[in-house]
């Protein structure tokens, strides 16, 4: 399905130095048709803690594959591990409001 984005609403407190909070809403020009490959996202209630036994499904556009989307499953990481391994690429630090996921020992897939 191909849709155009009608409106983007970035979180009003978004900071370009810390990248927090990195939340935005996009309104599409035409609603999506749900099926096995297109479904609403499942959001956390915010009351529980995630551990490294959880897998996250990540998706994105344009960075990994120039002209398309990508998605993959990665284990949740303790934020201290992300801070130790990725501080050079995120000078604002990894904070408690962030979710870290990746394969640190393998490299190449992280978020």
UniProtKB/TrEMBL annotation:
A Pfam family: Trypsin
Organism domain of life: Eukaryota
A biological process from GO: proteolysis
Organism field: Smutsornis africanus (Double-banded courser)
Species classification: Eukaryota, Metazoa, Chordata, Craniata, Vertebrata
Protein name: OVCH1 protein
Keyword Cytoplasm belongs to the record: no
Keywords: Disulfide bond
PANTHER family: ACROSIN-RELATED (PTHR24252), OVOCHYMASE 1 (PTHR24252:SF18)
UniProt keyword Protease, yes or no: no
Domain Peptidase S1: 1-110
GO terms for MF: serine-type endopeptidase activity
Signal peptide (residue range): none
